[in-house]
C-alpha cells in the first residue's frame, strides 16, 4: 500500500469568477477536471489510497470521484469546517491514514501539473532517511512561491514563503508543491488549529535540526492558480507538451469532446478544448482557449487564450483576449473586450454598434 494526501481545500481566489461554483481542482483542464490528471498520475506511480483534504465546496469532490475505483484508487474525503491552512489540513487528513510511523506519505498541492517522477521521489526519500523530501523546480520569477535554497547535497537550508524584500530572493529554486513526509513527522504538526506548512512547519523543522531534502528536476511544471496558467496548462495538455494518462483524446491543435458542436468553418487551434454541449459557430476563431460545457461561441468571434464559462455565450463579432467569462454570462454581439478582462457569472453585456472599417477611397 502507498498513501497520499491531496490538498484541495483552497478557495481559488485568483481564478474567480471560475471558482464561484467549482473548486479550482475540479475546473476542466485538457477536457477533464484538473484533479483527474493528478489522481491518474499518482495511481500510475503506484499510489493506492488517497485522502482528499477538502474545505471550499467540499461536497463536489465526492460527487465527482465517489470511492475512486474508476481510477483504480481508494479515495477518502475529509472536510475542514473552517480551512485549517496547508499544514493543518495535512495534520487533519493524517487521522485517516493507515501508514505506520516510519512509512513515507506523499502530499500534493491540488493545483500542480507536473512531469515529476513521483515514484522516484518516494524511493529516494526512503533511501535518504530524510524527515521530508520536497520536489523543487526553478522559475524565472520566484516571488509568488516558496523559495527553497539547498546546499550542494540537496539539504534544505531555508524556506522563504512569498518573499517580500529583494534580500529574501536568494534563489530561483522553489517549492513545487509535492512532498514525501515520514508519517511520524506529520504527527508533530499541531492538531485543531490553522497551520501553514510553508510558513510554520518547514521553518520549524529546520530550526529543530530536521533533515529536509530538496529534489530539483527540470520536468514540466505549472501551478494552475491564475487564469493565464490555467489556459496554458489546458493547452499544453491538448498539444502533448505534458503527458497525462487522463487526457480524453489524442493530442493535437484542438480537442472537441463528444457532445460538443464545432462548425467545420470554425478555426480551433493552439490547444483549444470545446467541452460537451458547447457550440462554436462558423467563422469563429478559438485559439488556446477553454470553452466549458454548454457555452456558445457565435459566428465571426475571436477567442484568444480565454476561458468561457459554463452556459456562457459570446455574441457575433465579439473579441476576447486572455479573458475569463463567468458561468452563464452573456457577452452581446460586437464587444471588443479589453485584454485580461473578467466578467462575473450571469452578467449580461449589451450589444455594441458594429465597427465599420474606414471607407475605401474611390
Ligand atoms: N484542505 C485545505 N485547507 N487545502 C488548502 C488550504 C486549506 O486551508 N489552503 C490551501 N489549500 C490547498 C489549495 O487548494 C492548493 O491545492 C494547495 O493547498 C496550495 O494552495 P495555493 O493557494 O495554491 O498556494 P500557492 O500556490 O499560493 O503556494 C503554494 O504552492 C506553491 C507551488 O505552486 C505553496 O506551497 C508554495 O510554497 C509553493 O511554491
Ligand atoms: Mg497554487
SSE layout and pairing:
Elements: E1 3-7, E2 28-29, E3 32-33, H1 34-44, E4 49-54, H2 59-65, E5 74-79, H3 85-94, E6 104-109, E7 112-114, H4 118-128, E8 132-138, E9 146-147, E10 160-161, E11 173-182, H5 183-186, H6 197-207, E12 212-216, E13 221-223, H7 227-239, E14 254-256, E15 261-262, E16 267-269, E17 272-274, E18 279-280, E19 285-287, E20 290-291, E21 296-297, E22 302-304, E23 307-308, E24 313-314, E25 319-321, E26 324-325, E27 330-331, E28 342-343, E29 348-349
Helix pairs in contact: 3-6
The structure holds guanosine-5'-diphosphate-alpha-D-mannose and magnesium ion (MG).
Guanosine-5'-diphosphate-alpha-D-mannose binds near residues 8, 175 and 177.
If you had to describe this structure to a student in words, what would you say it looks like?
- The chain is α/β, with parallel strands linked by helices.
- It has two domains: 221 residues, Alpha-Beta Complex (Spore Coat Polysaccharide Biosynthesis Protein SpsA, Chain A), CATH 3.90.550.10; 97 residues, Hexapeptide repeat proteins (UDP N-Acetylglucosamine Acyltransferase, domain 1).
- 19% of the residues lie in helices and 27% in strands.
- The strands form seven sheets. A seven-stranded mixed sheet has the order 5-4-1-6-11-8-12, with helices on both faces.
- A hairpin with a 2-residue loop joins strand 2 and strand 3.
- Helix 3 crosses helix 6.
- The model has no long low-confidence stretch (mean pLDDT 95).
- The structure holds guanosine-5'-diphosphate-alpha-D-mannose and magnesium ion (MG).
- Magnesium ion (MG) binds next to loops.
- Magnesium ion binds next to loops.
Amino acid at each position: 500500500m502507498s498513501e497520499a494526501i491531496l490538498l484541495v481545500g483552497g478557495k481559488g481566489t485568483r481564478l474567480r469568477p471560475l471558482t464561484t461554483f467549482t473548486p479550482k481542482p475540479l475546473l476542466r483542464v485538457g477536457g477533464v477536471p484538473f484533479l483527474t490528471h493528478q489522481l491518474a498520475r499518482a495511481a500510475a506511480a503506484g499510489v493506492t489510497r488517497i485522502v482528499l483534504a477538502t474545505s471550499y465546496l467540499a461536497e463536489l469532490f465526492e460527487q465527482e470521484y465517489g470511492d475512486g475505483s474508476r481510477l483504480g484508487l481508494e479515495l477518502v474525503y475529509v472536510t475542514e469546517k473552517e480551512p485549517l491552512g496547508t499544514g493543518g489540513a495535512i495534520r487533519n487528513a493524517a487521522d485517516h491514514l493507515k501508514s505506520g510511523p516510519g512509512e513515507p506519505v506523499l502530499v500534493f498541492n491540488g493545483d500542480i501539473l507536473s512531469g515529476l517522477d513521483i515514484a522516484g521521489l518516494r524511493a529516494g526519500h526512503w533511501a535518504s532517511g530524510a524527515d521530508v523530501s520536497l520536489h523543487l523546480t526553478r522559475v524565472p520569477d520566484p516571488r509568488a512561491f516558496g523559495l527553497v535554497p539547498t546546499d550542494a547535497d540537496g539539504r534544505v537550508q531555508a524556506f522563504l514563503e512569498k518573499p517580500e524584500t529583494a534580500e529574501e530572493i536568494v534563489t530561483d529554486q522553489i517549492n513545487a508543491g509535492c512532498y514525501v513526509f515520514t508519517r511520524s513527522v506529520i504527527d508533530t504538526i499541531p492538531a485543531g488549529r490553522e497551520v501553514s506548512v510553508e510558513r510554520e512547519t518547514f521553518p520549524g523543522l529546520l530550526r529543530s535540526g530536521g533533515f529536509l531534502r530538496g529534489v530539483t528536476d527540470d520536468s514540466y511544471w505549472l501551478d494552475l492558480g491564475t487564469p493565464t496558467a490555467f489556459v496554458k496548462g489546458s493547452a499544453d495538455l491538448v498539444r502533448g507538451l505534458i503527458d497525462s494518462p487522463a487526457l480524453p483524446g489524442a493530442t493535437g491543435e484542438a480537442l472537441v469532446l463528444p457532445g460538443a458542436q464545432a462548425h467545420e468553418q470554425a478555426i480551433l487551434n493552439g490547444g483549444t478544448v470545446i467541452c460537451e454541449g458547447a457550440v462554436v459557430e462558423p467563422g469563429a476563431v478559438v485559439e488556446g482557449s477553454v470553452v466549458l460545457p454548454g457555452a456558445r461561441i457565435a459566428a465571426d468571434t475571436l477567442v484568444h487564450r480565454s476561458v468561457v464559462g459554463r452556459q456562457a455565450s459570446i455574441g457575433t463579432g465579439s473579441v476576447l483576449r486572455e479573458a475569463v467569462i463567468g458561468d452563464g454570462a452573456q457577452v452581446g454581439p460586437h464587444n471588443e473586450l479589453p485584454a485580461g478582462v473578467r466578467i462575473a457569472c450571469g452578467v449580461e453585456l449589451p450589444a455594441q454598434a458594429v465597427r465599420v472599417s474606414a471607407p475605401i477611397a474611390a
